[in-house]
Amino acid sequence: MDIIVENLTKKFGTQRAVDNVSFKVKTGEVLGFLGPNGAGKTTTMRAITTFLTPNEGTIKFGNLSIYDHPDEIKKHIGYLPENNPLYQDMPVIDYLRFCARLQGIKKSKIKSKILKMVDLCGLEGEKHKKIGELSKGYQQRVGLAQALIHDPEVLIFDEPTAGLDPNQIVEIRKLIKKIGKEKTVILSSHILAEVEATCDRIMIINKGKIVADGTSDELRKHTQGKEILKITIEDGEKNEIFKALQKINSVEVVDFIDKNLNSFEIQSKPEMSSKKAIFKMCIEKAWTLTELTPFETKLEDVFRELTMN
Amino acid sequence: MKQIWIISRRELQSFFNSLMAYIILVTFLGFSGFFTWLFGSDVFFVKQASLQSFFGIAYWTLFFFIPALTMRLFAEENRSGTIELLVTKPINDWQLVLGKFLSTLLLIIIALVLTLPYYITVANLGPVDHGAVWSGYLGLILMSAAYISIGIFTSSISNNQIVGYMLALFIGIFFQIIFGLLAGNLSGFIGSILDYLSLSTHFESISRGVIDTKDLIYFLSIIFIGLVLTEGNLAKKRI
Ligand SMILES: Nc1ncnc2c1ncn2[C@@H]1O[C@H](COP(=O)(O)OP(=O)(O)OP(=O)(O)O)[C@@H](O)[C@H]1O
Ligand SMILES: [Mg+2]
Asked: What is the pTM of this model?
């Protein structure tokens, strides 16, 4: 089930928390929302799940609009809200049964569905406790269980791994990757590595607007522009090497990283690569090139560049 | 209908799990029982046995107890944020409001059923006007439904339970007594309007055994208006 968001705007008073945002998520795609605090990630998700009514714009699931068929659409959504609100005084099993009933699961199937979720989310030892007695991570698992119990086609997870231990984080990421193959998934996170590891596509939001949208490789290229290399050359005199490097056509800037080790940082001119020229130079001068590594632009850098003023 | 019942069931479960239900049931039965025998002992002198004093006491006890039951219903969902999960499930606002309404009404009906032994005891003491007793119970159920509806509305206003309770009492006291008192002092058109608004007028006429459509319409209107306003509050939160 595809999700199509068109010109979505959500205002709180005069503030445009989400400002004319359009995007599409296809079935089998996992989309990750990144953005600083207050960017509008949660607000966008709340509009998609029909919790908030947009001021402008439309949201469609396949060809069903949230304005005309909210009840039909809600059947297909599994939602894990931010802060994972749950009934603290209800036992885990009772709560899952309540959710299963609301989702219209057949009476005969409810028990097996609950057991499946308890198993999937690792709640076996805790299932008879009251939700309020569980640790934060276990509560998060209950939140996941209620979102998955009716096997929905669309999953909206607002910071799904918050409060989980490292083992469980890996499990949940695996789970999201697995279910993401057949379903439509939108998740938000502040952990860049997590988004990179689980999402097919990343959307960076800042102040209610989309500032980047693409795969993690595409995002890196977006800011990469110039090639940056780190090289180390042995058997040569450092100043001589420095001068020789500067003479290379494609090189823009040469900088010492460590004078004693003869290692340099080389920035090429836009759209040019200096790797071959450096290698040739070393052969001509009989220097030994012991290191040549391109600097990867990290997603962190992309994120900072796009979201800092 | 199914969704409404699922909500009611959860609320009832929560009433009984939190001991709230037991506290209310025990104090309600204790209160009304105690005062009924205290003030109602004249059944021994008057040849006609009646439950009039019981109805009068239950009328006031319910007035104070009902807001305590309803104050939690939406305020707590708003405070803890669980409302977000609830309204994004396949259920609409009306089913949600009706489910909560029904759960509290059922609890009150349970409490009233438990008072039937009074009726049986009194009936053994002398001849009882059975019609008046049943219409008295009907009157209590209708007045409870009206106050539940008001209480649910005040609970949906904020995320503070105490605010919900106090506001429900504040609105309730007008229907319970103030309109009636004012009506007694004012004559003419305004007086008769206030008299119509006074809940006690309608309650008394029903509990005397006359079930008039005018009274039924009165109670149903309060219930309806309260629930509509609650639904409006839920919808407003999403805008
Ligand atoms: N109910 C509300 N009333 C008023 N303003 C709100 C409301 N909800 C959100 N906002 C504002 O909208 C903006 C976006 O908030 P949102 O919760 O969507 O951010 P977010 O991207 O999820 O941030 P975080 O990473 O901190 O979770 C914020 O400035 C916030 O103050
Ligand atoms: Mg958020």
From this structure: 0.85
Chain A residue with the nearest C-alpha to that of B87: A51
Number of domains in chain B: 1
Contact A70 B87 (CB under 8 A): no
Would you say residue A110 lies in a domain? yes
* Residues in chain A where the model's pLDDT stays below 70: 222-225, 296-297, 309
Q: Is A101 on the interface with B (CB under 8 A)?
A: yes
Do residues A141 and A266 both lie within one domain? no
Instruction: Tally helices (H) and strands (E) across chain B.
Output: 12, 0
Same structural domain for residues A114 and A149? Answer: yes
| Cα–Cα dist B61/B237, whole Å | 33
Q: How far is the CA of A146 from the centre of ligand 2 (A)?
A: 20
Range of the domain at A288: 223-302
Q: Which residues line ligand 1 (CB under 6 A)?
A: A 12, 17, 35, 37-43, 82
Axis-axis angle for helices A92-102, B2-17 (nearest 10)? 160
Indicate the number of domains in chain A. Answer: 2
Nearest by Cα to A121 from A134, A139, A135, A104:
A139
Q: What is the pLDDT of residues B86-113, one digit of tens each?
A: 999 999 999 999 999 999 999 999 999 9
Show the domain range for B178: 2-237
3-state DSSP call for residue A188?
strand
DSSP string, A11-63: EETTEEEEEEEEEEE-TT-EEEEE--TTSSHHHHHHHHTTSS--SEEEEEETT
